[in-house]
Design a protein that fits this description.
Helix content: 10-25%
Number of domains: 2
Order of helices and strands: EHHEEEEEEEEEHH
Radius of gyration: 25 Å
Structural class: alpha+beta
Shape: extended
Distance between the termini: 83 Å
Strand content: 25-35%
Strand order of the largest sheet: 2-3-4-5-6-9
Bound molecules: zinc ion
Length: about 200
């Protein structure tokens, strides 16, 4: 649970600007959640909006809207320079407990990494803040997700998320298409004919 609130130094930085790691906090169920049902933070969108270019000590808000254009969620974040010399996003938001309706304030740092690009330029990645079997996940990802009922943003793997299309369409249960079966038989018959001809020639 977040604990810092006013621990700011003279420069307005947190005393402990370092990434922390959390249990996903959401019990794994047999029903997998789709990424489309989560709030997502995207490195592409942040790059486009100039979040990383503008650098540390800037304040931003991410907003989400429904199909009718009404705002459904918002999240405030600061960009900080961490002791590791990497950028960090200090995420700050409130989650409503679905059972009690209680508002839970959450605040923590997500590290942003910039591995060297072989073709120059710079790409920014988020480092997952969740714990997998008690160890920090630290996966470098382009998107972080907050599933319904979750407290912290994390990667798709940690939350065992799926895509809606994938959920609706499981190839293992695809019937054989009549067309493809017919094509297969045509090839098979053609091969048999070739074999027959070859046999005749050999005789
Ligand atoms: Zn993860």
């Amino acid at each position: 649970m977040p604990k810092r609130s006013n621990d700011l130094d003279d420069l307005g930085n947190y005393f402990e600007d370092k990434p922390e790691y959390f249990e996903p906090g959401r019990p794994r169920t047999s029903e997998r959640i789709c990424v489309e049902d989560c709030l997502a933070l995207s490195n592409t969108a942040m790059t486009r909006d100039g979040v990383f270019k503008k650098g540390p000590n800037n304040f931003w808000t991410s907003r989400w809207y429904d199909a009718a254009g009404r705002q459904t969620s918002a999240l405030d974040f600061w960009v900080r320079l961490l002791p590791s010399n990497q950028l960090g996003l200090v995420l700050s938001y409130t989650v409503t407990d679905p059972n009690t309706g209680q508002k839970i304030p959450v605040e923590y740092v997500v590290e942003v990494t910039t591995p060297p690009c072989p073709f120059g330029g710079q790409r920014y990645w988020f480092q997952c803040s969740l714990l997998t079997h008690g160890a920090p996940c630290k996966r470098r990802v382009g998107r972080l997700y907050l599933p319904p009922g979750g407290l912290y943003f994390g990667c798709r793997i940690c939350y065992n998320l799926t895509y809606r299309k994938q959920k609706q369409h499981d190839k293992r249960f695809d019937p054989i298409k009549p067309g493809s079966f017919h094509e297969l038989m045509k090839t098979f018959t053609a091969d048999l004919k070739t074999l027959h001809k070859l046999r005749k020639r050999i005789k």
